[in-house]
Specification:
Structural class: mainly beta
Distance between the termini: 17 Å
Oligomer: single chain
CATH topology: Methylamine Dehydrogenase, Chain H
Number of domains: 1
Radius of gyration: 19 Å
Helix content: under 10%
Strand content: over 45%
Amino acid sequence: MEHSSHESLLKHPNSITYESPFPLYALAISHSPYRVAVGSFLETYNNRVDILSFDPDALTLKPHHPPLSFDHPYPPTKLMFHPSNPNLLASSGDFLRLWDLRDHSIEPLSVLNNSKSSDFCAPLTSFDWNEVEPRRIGTSSIDTTCTVWDIDKGVVETQLIAHDKEVYDIAWGEARVFASVSADGSVRIFDLRDKEHSTIIYESPQPDTPLLRLAWNKQDLRYMATILMDSNKVVILDIRSPTMPVAELERHAASVNAIAWAPQSSRHICSAGDDTQALIWELPTVAGPNGIDPMSMYSAGSEINQLQWSAAVPDWIAVAFSNKMQLLKV
């Protein structure tokens, strides 16, 4: 990348920052009215979620007025707004929870707990809302399972032992197809029409190196991306050719923590990590011998823990680092 473009991107005139009293991790952005949910990351039981108002025209990002926030047990591992209803928010942590955003308050709608034996459950690492059938949410857990909920009925549609170890992330591809990644080092695809079988499409090159995150390309479902624990690589997979990555993006100088495909383009992906960088990549049709360079980069003030590239506001990327949440104009 040319030095001049690098310099201009570091000065990034089009970024908006929100500073929280707490370290931040989970992020979600809703369709109009544009709202951003930010979750605290405190190693205590008492955490919270705050709702911010985002005005892309006025370039403002500020706490919702009147204030909208709620206490959350443990740090939320993920937040998502309903694919088409900006007043419905889901969170994961000890359980999957649904929240109703009203004009002056946020009301808990449901706590979805599939543990038969007690009030306790294995913590949820992540979840994904099915855009094709929004009544479905899939969750991933440290107890090796993935659970598909019918949130309209408040019941479990199915629960699968998905992996040999903890499941760290889950992503829907189609109405009945999802994929997951695990501490066992594999990416597996499941089809609800054939629950007895799964397809392993990638395994860590070093045995038992956990895979932490999974992103499925919504613009071209042949492609997904994953990241390995303590690795500076983003691994791009083509589900038609399992086991061999089609590309490995290796320009981060430290561990990658988060990945997100562009919501409006099948060739672009963003990654962020401990090197404080958010990198945007354009995947070539054919990778050259020397690897792929990012097309643009942005430096945050410290390690970036979380990243969202939302279809609600496709021109903006949200990153969380330390106690700040920043929106970057793409």
